[in-house]
Amino acid sequence: MLLPFHDNTCIEAGVDEAGRGCYAGPVFAAAVILPKKFHHPLLNDSKKVSASHRDVLRTVIENEAVAWAVAMVDNLEIDKINILRASFKAMHLAIEQLTLKPNFLLIDGNRFNPFPHIKHRCFVKGDGRYASIAAASILAKTHRDEYMNLLHREFNMYGWEKNKGYSTLLHRNAIAEYGLSKYHRKSFNI
Predict the structure, then answer these.
(1) How would DSSP label each residue in 74-121?
(2) Which of 89, 105, 127, 157 has its CA 20 to 30 A from that of 116?
(3) pLDDT digits (tens, 9 = 90+) for 153-179
């Protein structure tokens, strides 16, 4: 059972990323502020929710959240600054876009670069603990999957419509046969 809040006296935003461990494509991040009484029985860590349920949840979250935002950092920037910094940058970009300024951030993971003037706390596996982080994980994942489906149309040999840029046998074999695309991360030892 997900906890609704860490501290219900604050305006909390849950923050999570998707695509950190991929060979190709951008890293996405989302920030979500949920209403005080928000509950949905399907909401969980995006990795534990089926694709069809993630799509249902995306619509619910985007319609019912007090505020939400999604941002991405592309593979070229990832190669320049590294994937960890790129993940933090995407999180910061998402937080900046929120239409309501939170005064506390719940971050999925064990590290984060502090966002100016907003306190935060990191939670390992936070997307399975707090509703707002789970909601952020759903938005980051669904927006990224949608983007990778678009990239698949341009480079269908890599199977991105199924693997979303992650390491699969099909993806590795396609890299061996066709080489890297302009969307692959050169900083990964593929």
Answers:
(1) -HHHHHHH-HHHHHHHHHHHHHHH-SS--SEEEEESS--PPPTT-EEE
(2) 127
(3) 999 999 999 999 999 999 999 999 999
